[in-house]
What we know:
Rossmann fold; undecaprenyldiphospho-muramoylpentapeptide beta-N-acetylglucosaminyltransferase activity; cell membrane; cell wall biogenesis/degradation; GlcNAc_MurG; 41% helix; alpha/beta
Amino acid sequence: MVLLTGGGTGGHLFPALAVAEELRRRGLEVFYLGSQGGLEARLLPETSLPHALIPAGKLDRSAFRPKEAQKLLLGLRAAWRLLVGTRPRAILSTGGYAGFPGAMVGELKGIPVLLHEQNAKLGLAIRLLAPLAQGLALSVPVTLSPGLARKARVTGYPVREVRYPKAEAKARLGFPPDKPLLLILGGSQGSLELNEKLPPLLKPLRLPVLHQVGERWLERYRHLEEDGYRIAGFVDAPLAMSAADLLLARAGAGTLAEAAYHRLPALLFPLSPSLDGGAQAANAQAYRQAGGAELGDLARLAKQVEGILAHPEPYREGMARLSPEGAAGRLADWLEEFL
């Protein structure tokens, strides 16, 4: 049996679910260990995956939080009991505070642990777990110490591997096939900053736009909708990215991996490092260095949009260099090496 653990947010949960699906397709037994307060607490009961939810304290080096420390200790104890009962032969942790207790206990019990880092910068949980882990899977190349580099491979970030012909995708979304389509994504919850700043800069271009504002912001920004400028609370990412010619987005690992799979050029507006420890800034730089994206500049946004749309092929080639196609299979292959 393979134990998968990680969550708290979709960025940690969805890659693990993709690997779980691949392992089950291969006939392997899997079990998912998540946290009581994460997104997985809502989504896992809707799946057929055997699972358990345990306390998981949020790791934070900047401050000692007694309540979170207590949750962490309770989570480690619950994980120990669960691993004694399930006796997994290998563990995949996708990190985050939810992915720490099960992987830590697994390492202490001598169970092979494979870690998966989604971002271009190692998160705290992954950094703490990495010294004792058997392997470290990376979504994109990351500079590592020699010791970690020896156990690391770039596997990519598992995504839904579904593409549609561009003309078909635009037709299904109600956009003309002969005009370039801009896609704005602020993450699954939407971005208040992008919702406020991008529409007045893009509307004068008179280009079709599909703008995901986030479900919580939908009514607030409904007034932005007009002919050619569409507002949505949530979009189907494979369909929208198949239709789009340019992405304007934050720099979350999942969004960028999907864009790379679709060879979709991007203008990126990463979160401030003060908000996420620099993960999105590192992601944006990795995709810029690969040639698939540019950092968005509001002062010259119109010129950036027009420039990429005029010469998209180099950006498509850059995105292709980081495409995660086959990532779930590569992670499953690696886990099978431990069985």
